[in-house]
Design goal:
heterodimer, A: two-stranded antiparallel ribbon, B: two-stranded antiparallel sheet, two-stranded antiparallel sheet, globular, cell membrane (chain A), membrane (chain A), Putative membrane protein insertion efficiency factor (chain A), Membr_insert_effic_factor_YidD (chain A), YidC/Oxa/ALB_C (chain B)
Amino acid sequence: MNGFITALVLAPRNAAVLLLRGYRAIISPLYGDVCRYYPSCSAYTLQAIQEHGLVVGSALGVRRIARCHPWAEGGIDDVPAKKNHRYGVTPFGFVVAGRGKG
Amino acid sequence: MDFIGTILWPLKWVVELLLVGWHWLLSNVGLDPAAGLTWVLSIVGLVLVVRAALIPIFVRQIKNQRRMLEVAPQLKKIQEKYKGKKDQISREAMSRETMELYKKTGTNPLSSCLPLLIQMPIFFALFSVLNDAQHKKPGVGPLNQQLADQFGNAKLFGIAPLHDSFASQWSLMTAGQPYTVSVMIIAATMVVLMTASQFFTQLQIVSKNMSPETKASPMFKQQRILLYLLPLVFAFSGVAFPLGVMFYWLTSNIWTMVQQFLVIRNMPTPGSEAAKAREARLARKGKLVANDGDIITIEEKKPVTTQRQQPVNKNRAKKQQARPGDAKG
C-alpha cells in the first residue's frame, strides 16, 4: 500500500523523466552541443525533476534555459540539492522509493 | 485558448505581420497577390528577417570560437588527461573540467540554448498559421479573412497548393482519389535540396573549419552522426509538412549554408585548414596583419642564381620587367 502511494506520488516526475530521456535520445543529437553550461540544460532539467519533482523541477529548468543565452558566462551549474534525500534513481533515470545510490 | 496557444500567440502575430508585410510589398511591386509564388517569396522574406535578426548572436559565437586558440594548450592537456578513458564518470569529469576552463577564460564557444528554443516556436507558429490558412481560418492578427482565403487557395506555378503535403497527396492516391502529382514532385525536390545543402554545410565545417583540438573531442563524433541523421529527418518532415512550411525550412538551410561559407572564408576557426588557407591568401596579397599589428608577407621565392646580374640602363630594365614570365620570377 505504501509502495503504491509512493509510486503515485512519483508518477508525474517519472513521466517527465521518460519524456526528457526521449528528447535527449532523439531530438537533442540533431543539433549537437549548444549549451554553455555543465550539465546541459536538458540534463539539468532532468536532474532537477528527479530531485525536486515535476513542478519545482520544471521551474528550475525554465529558469536555467532563460539563463542560457549568448551573453551568459556559462560554466558549471549543478542542480541545487534537496536537504532530505528520499528517493533512489534507476540507471535509466526513473525515481524509485528507497535511498538507492542517488 | 489553450496553454500552448497562449505562448504562441505573440509569435504568431509577429510571423503574420512579417508574412503579410512581405506579401503587401511584393504585391505592390507588381506580383499577383493571389499567386503561389508571391506567397512563397513572402515566406522567403520572413526567413530573411528572422535569420538576419539572429546574426549578432552568430557573430558573437564566432568571436568566442576564435578566442579558443588562447586556451588550446590547456584544452589539449585536459584531453590528454582523459585520453582513452571511455567510462561515463571520466567523460563527465572531462566535460566538467572543459566547461570550467571556458568559464575561467571567458572563451565559451557554445551557442547557448535560448536562441534555439526561440526558433522552434517560430517554426511552430508558421506551421499553425499555414495550417489555419489551409482551412481558410484567419490568423490572430494581420492575416485577415481575405488574406487567409488567398493564402489557402494559393498554388505554386498555378498547380501545387501550398497547404498540401506529400503525405496528403499520397493518401489521396492510395485511396484512388484525384491527387496532385506536382505537390509530390516539389516536396521530393525540396527534401533532396535540403539534404544536399545540409551535407555541404556540415562537410565544409568538418573538413575545413575544425581545429585539431575539436577533431579530438567527443563533440566531433556527434557532428558526424548528425551528418547522416538529418537527411532522415528531412525526408520524414518533407513527407508530413505542407509545402509552405518546407519552403521556410529550405530557405533557412540555404541561409545557413551561405553564412557558413562566408564565415569559413573570412573568419575561420584558428588552427583549422580554412584558417591556414586564409592566411596564405592574405599573405599573398600582403594584407595579413599579425597580432601586434605588423603586416606579414610571404617572400616570394626567387630562383637562386649565382650568375651576376649585368647592370642595364633604365630603358632596358623597363623592357625586361615587362617581359612575360620574368615578372613573377
